[in-house]
Request: fold
Amino acid sequence: MVKEIDRAGIPVTHICTVVPISLTIGANRIVPAVGIPYPLGDPTLGEKKSYEIRENLVMRGLKALTVPVEEQTVFEEDI
Reply:
């Protein structure tokens, strides 16, 4: 789905837990998430820390939308 939306001219960031799957489906902007059971946080770290993780991932995903890409790009670090 992300590939088709991107092809229609709407940039998409795929926040995912398994990067090789995103690469296989052809997502252009990929942001690795934390883990399969909790992709956007870690409840074992407490509510505040989990929120910080989630905020960082979403901000990284939004910033990735502003980066022009010619090929699949994994945004591992802050942009």
